[in-house]
């Protein structure tokens, strides 16, 4: 079959690539997703119809867009829904801060725009900005935004990172938010451009890794309950000694080696890092030996098992002003190493989001490119049906059915055993200064049932919820809903 120029063929070059047939990624409604200047992108079912919708933020002068998913066909409704800001948009996150069952959208801008950040609450068919009345209308060079419950009180809090000011952590007081970052020691004054929350030491509290630029060191803030302590240096994770023209971006978390522990990838201006979680709160940088160290001004990164072989793969993009078509890196996980695959025609630069938007079992890819010749294409993963069905998704909600469990860990096991078949976290910061509210996806080493285990954070520590012998073929959109 002859492919159009815009089709993306992943050809498994013998003998290095073993496994399933090559994958093909085909642009979805390419005219709709063709505009340049895209920066953050994030998925969330804002209208509660069961389909994931996509928000994309743009450079100054270009309207932000909200793509409503109507059964696999997208309609752009940014203007009519009230979120089509023309301000330079650098961050976006979906979350349910008020527990009403509807997703809200926080949007972060640049300081030079002189526009405070906005919090859009859904009001009927439109979104209304309530940032000022709730106390979260911060202003600055906003980067990663995350909705997380850092103190396990059942209310979703808000973390906002800045490239030019101390980071903020807004505690949810019920009817208002209060910045507690200075009191808790997490107001990092360095140039933060990326962050991800996860319980790195498994003590039942979410910690935060911050990726900092312009030679400033990275931070890993351990959550001790009444205080955050930066332990990045003592764990060898701060990039100590790097030059002023180096820095880090786009961290992302997944269990890449299926050992049951969550690992951390950090894209960088300079060598990338892949911190293997050795347990006991210790990590080892294995980026070089695993083949993912090199990059060209790596900006966003994201994990996704694109071929459903049971090993999570890694997509990393770069930001370089010239040439305009950057060299992305698409790493296929071979188990003992990563091997680079052919890249997309259009570089991603600022946004990478894996999501199965059509519920067929195969992960699709949304990108965002802010260069003049870029696009924000959505690529559909065209996979043989039998291969696509070798997958399962897990959507983690709280007991009331709300999105409040960002940072929760999801693991799948061979049925009746403790053999790990994969590990993910509910998104707490990904892709580039974005946060989605969506299920986590697993490819399976073979078709059949799985055991599912969710570890969530609670007032009494790490809470484990198990569902045994799950048959994904009997689930709508192959998605198991777990209330943790």
Could you describe the 3D structure shown?
This protein is mainly beta. A 5-stranded antiparallel beta sheet has the order 1-2-29-28-27, with no helix packed on it. Strands 10-9-8-7-33 form a 5-stranded mixed beta sheet, with no helix packed on it. Strands 3-4-5-6 form a 4-stranded antiparallel beta sheet. Strand 16 and strand 17 (219-223) form a beta hairpin. The radius of gyration is 20 Å and the shape is globular. Residues 1-21 have low confidence and may be disordered.
Largest sheet: 5 strands, antiparallel
Low-confidence residue ranges: 1-21
Kindly name the structural category.
mainly beta
Determine the N-to-C terminus distance: 46 Å
Total beta strands: 37
Tally the helices: what do you get? 5
| Helical amount | under 10%
Q: What is the overall pLDDT average?
A: 93
Overall form: globular
Strand content: 35-45%
Strand order of the largest sheet: 1-2-29-28-27
Rg, rounded, reads: 20 Å
Task: Compose a concise summary of this entry.
The chain is mostly beta strands and 484 residues long. The protein is built from five helices and 37 strands. The chain starts with 7 loop residues before the first strand and ends with a strand.
Task: State the main characteristics.
484 residues; mainly beta; 5-stranded antiparallel β-sheet; 5-stranded mixed β-sheet; 5 helices; disordered N terminus
How would the blueprint of this fold be written?
Layout: E1 8-10, E2 23-27, E3 38-44, E4 53-58, E5 65-70, E6 73-76, H1 78-81, E7 89-95, E8 104-109, E9 118-123, E10 126-129, H2 131-134, E11 142-148, E12 157-162, E13 168-172, E14 177-179, H3 181-184, E15 192-198, E16 207-212, E17 219-223, E18 228-230, E19 247-254, E20 263-269, E21 273-279, E22 282-285, H4 287-290, E23 298-304, E24 313-318, E25 329-333, E26 338-341, E27 351-355, E28 364-368, E29 378-382, H5 385-388, E30 391-397, E31 409-413, E32 420-425, E33 434-435, E34 440-443, E35 450-458, E36 461-470, E37 479-483
Parallel strand pairs: 7-33, 30-37
Antiparallel strand pairs: 1-2, 2-29, 3-4, 4-5, 5-6, 7-8, 8-9, 9-10, 11-12, 12-13, 13-14, 15-16, 16-17, 17-18, 19-20, 20-21, 21-22, 23-24, 24-25, 25-26, 27-28, 28-29, 30-34, 31-32, 31-35, 35-36
């Amino acid at each position: 079959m002859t492919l159009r120029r815009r089709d993306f063929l992943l050809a498994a070059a013998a003998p290095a690539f073993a496994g399933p047939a090559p994958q093909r990624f085909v642009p979805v409604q390419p005219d709709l997703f063709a505009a340049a200047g895209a920066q953050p992108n994030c998925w969330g079912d804002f209208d509660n119809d069961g389909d994931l919708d996509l928000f994309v933020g743009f450079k100054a002068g270009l309207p932000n867009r909200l793509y409503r998913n109507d059964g696999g066909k997208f309609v752009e409704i940014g203007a009519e829904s009230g979120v089509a800001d023309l301000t330079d948009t650098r961050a976006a996150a979906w979350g349910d801060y008020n527990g009403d069952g509807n997703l809200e959208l926080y949007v972060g801008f640049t300081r030079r725009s002189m526009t405070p950040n906005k919090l859009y609450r859904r009001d009927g068919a439109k979104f209304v900005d309530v940032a000022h009345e709730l106390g979260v209308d911060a202003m600055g060079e906003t980067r990663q935004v995350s909705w997380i419950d850092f103190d396990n009180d059942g209310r979703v809090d808000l973390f906002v990172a800045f490239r030019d000011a101390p980071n903020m952590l807004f505690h949810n007081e019920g009817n208002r938010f209060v910045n507690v970052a200075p009191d808790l020691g997490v107001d990092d004054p360095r140039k933060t451009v990326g962050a991800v929350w996860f319980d790195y030491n498994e003590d039942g509290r979410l910690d935060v890794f911050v990726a900092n630029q312009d030679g400033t060191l990275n931070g890993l803030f351990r959550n001790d309950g009444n205080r955050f302590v930066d332990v990045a240096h003592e764990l060898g994770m701060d990039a100590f000694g790097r030059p002023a023209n180096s820095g880090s971006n786009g961290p992302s978390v997944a269990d890449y080696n299926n050992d049951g522990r969550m690992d951390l990838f950090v894209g960088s201006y300079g060598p990338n890092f892949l911190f293997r979680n050795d347990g006991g709160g210790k990590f080892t940088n294995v980026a070089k030996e695993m083949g993912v160290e090199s990059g060209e001004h790596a900006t966003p990164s994201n994990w996704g098992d694109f071929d459903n072989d049971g090993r999570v793969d890694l997509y990393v993009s770069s930001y370089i002003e010239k040439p305009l078509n950057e060299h992305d890196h698409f790493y296929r996980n071979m188990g003992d190493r990563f091997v680079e695959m052919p890249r997309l025609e259009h570089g991603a630069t600022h946004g990478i989001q894996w999501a199965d938007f059509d519920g067929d079992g195969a992960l699709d890819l949304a990108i965002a490119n802010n260069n003049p010749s870029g696009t924000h294409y959505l690529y559909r993963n065209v996979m043989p049906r039998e291969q696509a069905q070798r997958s399962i998704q897990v959507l983690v909600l709280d007991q009331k059915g709300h999105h409040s469990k960002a940072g929760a860990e999801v693991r799948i096991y061979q049925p009746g055993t403790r053999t790990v078949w994969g590990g993910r976290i509910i998104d707490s910061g990904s892709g580039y200064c974005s946060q989605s509210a969506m299920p986590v996806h697993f490819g399976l080493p073979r078709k059949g049932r799985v055991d599912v285990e969710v570890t969530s954070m609670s007032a009494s520590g790490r809470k484990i919820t198990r569902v045994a012998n799950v048959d994904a073929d009997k689930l709508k959109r192959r998605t198991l809903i777990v209330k943790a």
